[in-house]
Design goal:
2 copies of one chain form a homodimer. By secondary structure, the first copy, chain A, is α+β, with helices and mostly antiparallel strands. The first copy, chain A, folds into 2 domains: 325 residues, BirA Bifunctional Protein, domain 2 (2-Layer Sandwich), CATH 3.30.930.10; 88 residues, 3-Layer(aba) Sandwich (Rossmann fold), CATH 3.40.50. Helices cover 39% and strands 19% of the residues of chain A. In chain A, strands 1-5-6-11-10-9-7-8 form an 8-stranded mixed beta sheet. In chain A, helix 5 packs across helix 11, helix 6 runs antiparallel to helix 11 and helix 8 crosses helix 9. The two termini of chain A are 47 Å apart. The model of chain A has no long low-confidence stretch (mean pLDDT 86). At the A-B interface, helix 1, strand 1, strand 2, helix 4 and strand 5 of A face helix 1, strand 1, strand 2, helix 4 and strand 5 of B.
Chain lengths: 444, 444
């Protein structure tokens, strides 16, 4: 490299998406967008850059550390969005004030977000989030709908085996209250969150030693978070077991009954029962995630992170307004999903769609080549011309490498008769074609 | 506003895109992407954030000033991309080295870019660029193709009246050389660029006084840059006029002949002749834009900026590599186009697609509502349920505001019979419907 050049390189944790993956991603985004719209979510777009105080107000230290934050040309404290939820809270309050939107409001947004995290496999510092949100709802209907949307979307992008796990965090909170450990709940949840990753004994030890919870209560907590449908022979038996918790308090009874109601609706719909299950160990650390929590895992990659998460919040807009606006949020982690499909060998090699390469023999025949190209394109035959009139051998090599099916050659004497030489690159056969209609028939 | 809240606000020059515009934008992007793919451009994605030296090397001060540049968590000098061309140059050199791509390479990319410019009407600090590029081509074919792609894309997104102006800047350069003013050409071009905006006399004065060009040569320069097809009765007469310049030098002769060849091909294609014209006044200030230059204006908004620009470069990758890679770039300024359509009153009010609102009468009937909703959706009838079981009057008000066509009501006694009350919100008529098939017939 000459000292007059700059090294062509990317920042660590960022990446280029090459055509084969980009084509797959675009097709998926189209399907996701269509599915969201079919459930009547409306698209919106918010800026990548916001006032930093809009993004960080009341969020945990963890998020502050992950923020790409800087001063703009006028010394304003600004930051790249780390998610689309906080910008949506800002959007909602601001646009309600401006009377641009009215409640209830259902929106989706598919954009990139930025987090300064340790770059690792399946984790990038810039990634695409496909968010959909119900704003201003306390109804069970939105909980059922969220499961429907997740199910329909993943099915529509050709994912066949996945499980949507759900939990009502309120049950957990009230259970902790009953055990007189509510004020420790955030820390308990953080520890419990590790169950999938570390041994239960270690969690037990940590709860007793760090949080000073009695051995008896730790046992109860762990029994509770281990309540997973998959450990029961059927959903009925599972609900019989969790019904026991109804006796603990009136509030827990209400929340368990809500879960039963959600199931009652789900069972009537055309979603096979094995696609969703209750799992009391799903907690998520952050305190502002309340009520229902959803995580979706791929059955063939159970150790991978969730590919679709969702939560119901009570108070997200409280940063900006005193109005109480509750909502439900969910997001498909598209980049992770694409990586997973690749890992599973399920990502089809999407080739570029061109089928026929027209050899470029001489610049003086360019207009004939263009005319044929235009006609072929109008007949929906994906065609490309080689951009330079170089040696035919080089053009053949290119066609081969790019996996074209045919190469079309116009020799000088053929041009006068509007005839062609067509070579099939799969079997190597070459033939003369005497008119355009015949050409179209052979290429279709 | 309470002192505990943060004001919900955006940065100046940034904006929210509300559903009605976002739906329009998504539909346009889909069409644009399809058109690019039909011409065999492959999509790629590069990071929003790059090393600053990758972006700024050899670019003018103007761009340095417009860059959102800052230090990341590890004190690396980084910046948000201000266009997609420089990142593509980095992408090309890096991925050729990694053998991820091969030449020739045709790619498109539709992403947002960031520029610290004076925020004004039709100009935002974050905006969407729809770029398509041919990499590694010196052929006239790519010049013809660029015009085809611009024409097809704008037609596909329902733009009916526009003009693609083209110029070969080499002709201009060699003409300046002939007049012994080549070393001043960059400044002459900057001044000439203002012709559309200020009076010709002022340009004349500036050229004579600031650039010390003789009165005679200034006359020649201005005569030259005023060569516009629109000032001639037809294209033939125009080419007769510019043929005179062939006598100036062998090089100018070659470039004029290239322009003639491009026209020779274009005339044979199905693009009406009034959609493109040669205009020698199109120059663009930046020195690295060489060869062919394209600008597309909307006929009904001639004073507006170009909605689609293109250039042929000789040496863009020279920042990163000593290889000589020439290419052609073009970009549709989508946000400007959307603003223009809105200005012209051509932007359709795209309503949300929901047609039927199912009233939410009582949470205990939710499963029936969901069952009907699922069935209607499977029959491709866009349906929505009201998220809360509130007063019917409130739900009617919502349906009206959101322009639903029908409201479907399930009274308690009707649920048992699987029958419905359907109200047409346009004419206010209300009727009982006795089975599901009848309901589908009435709604289709």
């Amino acid at each position: 490299m000459s000292k007059n050049t700059v090294q062509a390189r990317k920042l660590n944790g960022f990446r280029d998406i090459l055509p084969s993956l980009a084509i797959q991603k675009i097709e998926m985004l189209k399907k996701i967008s269509e599915t969201f719209q079919s459930f009547w979510f409306a698209p919106i777009e918010t800026p990548h850059l916001e006032y930093a105080d809009v993004l960080v107000w009341k969020w945990s230290d963890e998020i502050q550390k992950e923020l790409y934050r800087f001063e703009d040309h006028w010394k304003r404290d600004v930051a790249l969005r780390f998610d689309q939820t906080v910008p949506l809270a800002r959007f909602t309050v601001e646009n309600l004030r401006l009377q641009n939107i009215s409640l209830p409001f259902k929106r989706y947004a598919i954009w990139n977000v930025f987090r300064w995290e340790r770059a690792q496999k399946w984790r990038y510092r810039e990634f695409t989030q496909c968010d959909f949100d119900f704003i201003w709802t306390k109804s069970l209907a939105s909980d059922v709908e969220i499961i429907q949307v997740i199910y329909s979307t993943l099915k529509n992008i050709w994912i066949e085996k996945f499980t949507i796990s759900l939990n009502n965090r309120k049950i957990m909170n009230w259970f902790f209250e009953y055990l007189w450990v509510l004020e420790k709940s955030e820390w308990i949840l953080r520890i419990v969150d590790k169950i999938a990753k570390i041994w239960e004994e270690k969690v037990e030890k940590e709860l007793i030693e760090t949080e000073k919870i009695s051995f008896e209560n730790v046992k109860k907590i762990l029994e509770f978070v281990n309540l997973k449908e998959e450990n029961f022979s059927d959903k009925k038996e599972f609900f019989e077991k969790i019904s026991e918790y109804k006796n603990f308090s009136e509030k827990i009874k209400n929340w368990v009954e809500e879960l039963e109601k959600i199931y009652e609706i789900l069972w009537k719909l055309d979603i096979p029962k094995n696609f969703y299950k209750v799992d009391f160990s799903i907690a998520r650390g952050l305190w502002y995630y309340t009520w229902m929590v959803y995580e979706t895992t791929l059955d063939d990659l159970p150790w991978m992170w969730s590919v679709c998460s969702g939560w119901r919040y009570d108070d997200l807009t409280k940063s900006f307004s005193n109005d109480d606006i509750s909502w439900v949020w969910a997001s498909i982690w598209l980049d992770r999903l694409l990586a997973a499909l690749d890992e599973l060998g399920l990502s089809e090699e999407k080739k570029s769609p061109a089928k026929v390469l027209i050899a470029n023999m001489d610049e003086k025949f360019l207009w004939e080549i263009f005319k044929i190209w235009e006609k072929l394109r109008k007949n929906w035959i994906f065609t490309e011309i080689y951009p330079e009139s170089v040696k035919l051998q080089k053009q053949f090599k290119f066609a081969d490498k790019q996996k074209f099916e045919f190469i079309l050659i116009l020799w000088e004497n053929e041009i006068k008769d509007w005839s062609f030489t067509l070579k099939n690159l799969k079997n190597g056969e070459q033939e003369g074609v005497w008119d355009f209609e015949e050409l179209v028939r052979k290429l279709k």
